[in-house]
Amino acid sequence: MSYLSPVDYTEDRDFLDRLQRRLRGDLDLSWMHVDTEKVACTAQNERRGLTFRDLDVGSYGYSALPEVIRHNRSFAPRGAALPPGLPDLQAEVNRTSEVWAYNIEGYYEEAMTRQWNATTDIPWADLAGAELPEDIGKAYAQLLTFLTEVEMIATDVPAKWMGRLAADFFEVKNFIATQAMDEARHAEIFRKRALSTGYGLMRASRHNEWNLKFLRDADSFAEASLSLHLQAEGMVLTLFRFSEYVSPTEADKKLFRLVMQDEARHVGYGMQHLKWVLDHHPERREIIHQHLDEAENFVFGAGYATEVMEPFIILAGKGTKKEQIAEGVRIQQMFQQKQSEEYFDRLAKCGLPERRERSRLWKILDLTLRQQAA
Amino acid sequence: MAVGFPSRAFFEALQAEMRRERERFSRLGYFDTVFGVRVLDDARTPLACTLAFEVFDCVEVRDGIDPGAVDFVVEGPLEGWKAMLDTIHRLGAADTTHSLNTLTHFGETLQVRSDDPIGHDKLYRFAESMQAFFDLSARVDFTYPDGTRPPAARGAA
Predict the structure, then answer these.
(1) pTM (predicted TM-score)
(2) Residue B124, domain member (yes or no)
(3) Which residues of B touch A342 (CB under 8 A)?
(4) B78: distance to nearest CA of chain A, Å?
(5) How far is A40 from chain B (nearest CA, A)?
(6) B147 touches chain A (CB under 8 A)
(7) Is the residue at B151 inside a domain?
(8) Domain ranges, residue B115
(9) Which domains can be identified in chain A, with CATH numbers?
(10) For B118-131, how does the pLDDT look when each residue is reduced to its tens digit (9 = 90+)?
(11) B66: in domain
(12) Could you tell me if residue B147 is inside a domain?
């Protein structure tokens, strides 16, 4: 209990007198006369409902947010009257460019309408009757173990930052809240699926956890977003699509389509945020590159860890016979190439076309693919 | 009366089926994208259509594709589309080897074309709605250019 009230209300005579007057019907009503904007926002598109974009008016809006939030250091919602004496909550993130993204309000509304339920939206009864061969079942359970591990930290990271953002970043905070919910649901569904395969959880991944710790311990929200939304989730998005591709049952395909949707939305936020940063603060380009240098080092170790890569090969080749493994390796290489190309394409779209040339990850992957093709 | 595939009428039939399933698509969430569909057929002029989705509805089906006005284009030979539609018609929905993501993932059967990663990623942001939309073709009575029909639904007389 490090924060104590500046007032002991049960002993404060002024407070108690006021309370008595109110209870006698002597109302103050000063709050009725605050000088806030009187608005009556309506849905511009009735089929869509009343959205945050419809509320983007005057002092309630987000279009005219300043770069630095100085005036509201409290929890007061943007546009409310700020009486004297509000506490300074010491938000750590007070610069708009550290969090804002083009179309942030759209991503939030999309997230809210596209929520789904891991318990009821998957035909678990169908899966209960789907027996998998042992090698496929174990490989799938290992993949699900890895994904559960990833999604648990992907839940922790946005949740960690949510309360550290200034209250005026209302739309971003809400979007991050949906992301935390999405990631918790992903951890839930991967755990449920692993525990319904007949094999349960397999082995945690040391290299993967080093990468996850790097994500969790980012020094700033901007760094966390870069490595979580764009780099990690971008690569995981390609992985989910690949997982849908190799899924052994129709219910598993549905599972991966549902998680893919959420992941693509998070990647969208990450891209629109990086574009915002580079458009408004091009001087941060070098810092971004330096962070990506280390992020890519971690992801290379995590993505190519034995317990991560081998299940992909077995699932892609549909077994462990020699010819199946050869086919699995061929498909796995196509996946790796696609994953890295999509990642660098996204960075180029955000305004970092030079990343490919600078990246050691790209050079290693390119060299590996050339050697394997020769 | 049967419509032809590929044709704008086929996609208008899907649009009509989607409107009958408004409740289901509402549960899947906002579906905001404009994409092109191109069916390549060596024997005929390729069909190109643009489908526009907004909120929970397919709001427009039009001929042609303006590359600057779509998020992505799904294209492939008639045989690739036929493989998907035949499976959907037979089973009522795509199976493990014929989902839209599986058919387009490595571009082996159908390809996704886009110059814009944000537009391209909409295929995945709305993946379940996209699949549900194409699965509605199980209800459409249609014929292929050679006059054949997709296989009858499993269990149908």
Answers:
(1) 0.94
(2) yes
(3) 117
(4) 21
(5) 23
(6) no
(7) no
(8) 3-138
(9) 96-373 (1.10.620.20)
(10) 999 999 999 999 99
(11) yes
(12) no
